[in-house]
Design brief:
The protein is mainly β. It is built from one helix and five strands. The chain has a five-stranded antiparallel sheet with strand order 4-3-2-1-5.
Length: 59
């Protein structure tokens, strides 16, 4: 899980590399936020700020 700056929008997502230098962004809440895939050119606007080491959710 990583904190990223996606073209000015701050987000927390799981990151997966794809063939050809692509990237897949995944949310734990996939029902409301489906996976997003980006190719090599689109990945250039995504900056990884850091890795999330702890988080909490309400049940």
């Amino acid at each position: 899980m990583y904190a990223i700056n996606h073209d000015g929008m701050l987000r927390v997502k799981l990151l997966y590399t794809l063939p050809g230098n692509g990237l897949r962004l995944r949310s734990y809440n996939q029902d409301e936020y489906p996976d997003e895939s980006y190719n090599d050119d689109q990945v250039k606007v995504i900056i990884v700020i850091g890795r999330v080491s702890w988080y909490s959710v309400l049940i």
